[in-house]
Amino acid sequence: MLEALLRRFIPHYQDTHDPIVRERYGLLAGGVGLGLNLLLFAVKLLAGVLTGAISVTADAFNNLSDAAGSAVTLAGFKLASQKADERHPFGHGRVEYLAGLGVSLLILLVGVELGRGSLEKILHPAPAALGPLAVGLLGLSILVKLWMGWFYGEMGRRAQSTALAAAGADARSDVLATSAVLAGLAVSHFLHIQLDGWLGLLVAALILRTGWGAARDTLDPLLGTPPDPAMVADIEGLILGHPQILGVHDLVIHDYGPGRRMMSVHAEVPADGSLVELHDVIDRTERELKERFGLEAVIHMDPVERDDPHSNRLHALAEELAREIDPAATLHDFRRGGDGQVAFDVVVPYDVALSDEEVRAALTEKLLARAPECRPAIGVDRSYVL
Question: For residue 33, what are the contacts with CB-CB under 8 A and spacing of at least 6?
């Protein structure tokens, strides 16, 4: 069914790297969500009137907020698809993340309001009526939300969209919330126990939990996260596939929205190599990264000596000593200067307890103890990848 829907409304729907295709994913998902959530709002509001239950009425307004979230998603995808301009040279892709954050804040607002109304119902309980029509309406809403959770989740997976993933998580939480309301009303009806306010409070907690998780997932790419380790391995494999490139380090990926990523990396090349030849290799590698990963890559060349036995011995010694500080530590930009100077950068993970200065001091002490003729000049980096 989904394949037929995508073929009907999204030409070339498999090409999700295309900003136009991604825009159409968002518009289709947002339009479907807007229509269905407005329908569910009306259905649940009617069920709330019939039962007199605060939990059902609050659940209806939860769907109204979902409709507002769908409208935000629609606007977000439309704005994110705009081309780069003089004020936004990297495009508008991060608007999609902001749209997801807006949906998350709406979810949290609904959770707070629902919790407030439920507390009032606990303090001032009133019986709720449960009839066949109300049961049927709530059951129908559960089935619709089940489908919407699957639909949003699949659309988000295909388009790699955090905004659609957040909408899918919200739909799945709605299924739990409405199911809890329906089960609780049945218990109240048959056992004459006033659970309406407590059920509303449970629904509010579920909604707040979903909203917090969705907000966290949309904030992460805005704040910046490490790139996927598997992707890093693939990138490094592609770069090192060129025999003229001896090593890579300081790999950073900047995310300006889905399909809009830039990458910078340092590539070690032979110090005695042909500058023209190495420049051609670097240019070709940048094009390959663009074609394979969709990354706008900038590669900085670092010349390294390969055939100096003394430099190689000191390099191996420095690597050994760095791993004594942390097994994951690595070295780059190793070079020797006049008067015995040995300069290099050591890379340690972020979770190393030592400060940068403490790492530098410890490694300097170890190196001087083993090679007192050296004058170490050590820089300290923290690794960008997990």
Answer: 66, 67, 69, 70, 73, 148, 152, 167
Phi-psi region of 240 (alpha: psi -120 to 50; beta: other; left: phi over 0): alpha
Is there a common fold for 226-304 and 306-386? yes
SS3 254: strand
Q: Which amino acid is it at 235? A: I
54-80 vs 19-51: helix axis angle to the nearest 10?
A: 170
**Domain edges within the chain:** 2-223, 226-304, 306-386
E strand map for 294-340: 295-304, 330-336
**Tally of CB atoms within 10 A around 30:** 26
Q: Which residue has the tokens 């670092």?
A: 302
Dump pLDDT digits (tens) for 336-370: 877 778 888 898 888 888 999 999 999 999 999 99
355 three-class SS: coil
pLDDT tens digits, residue range 49-100? 877 776 677 778 777 777 777 776 666 666 666 676 677 766 666 776 777 7
Bridge pairing between strands 261-270 and 375-382? unpaired
Q: What's the CA gap between 330 and 248, in Å, rounded?
A: 11
- The fold adopted by the segment(s) 2-223 is Alpha-lytic protease prodomain-like (1.20.1510)
pTM metric for this prediction: 0.55
Q: Is 323 exposed, middle or buried (0-12, 13-18, 19+ CB in 10 A)?
A: middle
Find, among 168, 175, 173, the residue nearest to 141 by Cα: 175
- Read off the tokens for 51: 């039962």
